[in-house]
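Lecture notes, part 5. Sequence design as translation. It can be helpful to think of inverse folding as translation between two languages: the language of shapes and the language of residues. The source text, in structure tokens, appears below.
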């Protein structure tokens, strides 16, 4: 067995294990750490097939930014995990239904690729000789899929705005900075001049 095959099975096994731990860990911080491990192993699989641009993008963008951001958000937010576990049984039927749909779609894709790999390969865009992986992805992404790419960016923008709105909600008992009041404050509101006679304290 070739070394590349052994490395592929090693990365795949660790990737599947870490993905299962992401959804099965009770501690959300542990889930984020397993998610980072899954991203690293997925990047290794991309390197094995020669997609070095996707591998570096996965490490830099997802591991270096998104996963670390998830980790900070999970650690900083005051999440009541007791209430989350209590509502698990209520939303479990919906979750099982969505998971079954995803699993069925995955099985259809695997069976189709095993039965007709040549037909699926015919739909792939050929890469000319001497063209780098980054240039080939850019040519396809910004020509054939430019509208889909823009819509994906718009969805991420809406998600970012929604996250900001949810995290900046008004909480009782939390002091917030009022910049307008600070700027409009006069000298008389902050400084008090007291006449102290000799021999007396203020």
């Amino acid at each position: 067995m070739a070394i590349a095959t052994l490395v592929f099975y090693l990365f795949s096994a660790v990737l599947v294990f870490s993905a299962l731990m992401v959804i099965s860990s009770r501690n959300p911080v542990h889930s984020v750490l397993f998610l980072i491990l899954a991203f690293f192993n997925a990047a290794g699989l991309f390197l094995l097939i020669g997609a070095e641009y996707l591998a570096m993008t996965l490490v830099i963008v997802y591991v270096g930014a998104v996963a670390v951001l998830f980790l900070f958000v999970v650690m900083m937010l005051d999440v009541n995990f007791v209430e989350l576990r209590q509502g698990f049984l209520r939303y479990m039927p919906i979750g099982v239904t969505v998971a079954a749909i995803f699993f069925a779609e995955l099985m259809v894709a695997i069976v189709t690729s095993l039965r007709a790999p040549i037909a699926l390969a015919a739909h792939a865009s050929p890469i000319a000789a001497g063209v780098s992986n980054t240039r080939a992805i850019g040519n396809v992404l910004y020509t054939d899929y430019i509208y889909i790419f823009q819509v994906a960016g718009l969805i991420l923008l809406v998600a970012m705005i929604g996250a900001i709105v949810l995290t900046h909600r008004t909480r009782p008992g939390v002091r917030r900075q009022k910049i307008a009041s600070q700027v409009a404050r006069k000298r008389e509101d902050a400084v008090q001049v007291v006449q102290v006679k000799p021999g007396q304290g203020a």
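The translated text above is only one of many valid answers, since several sequences can fold into similar shapes. The mean pLDDT is 77.
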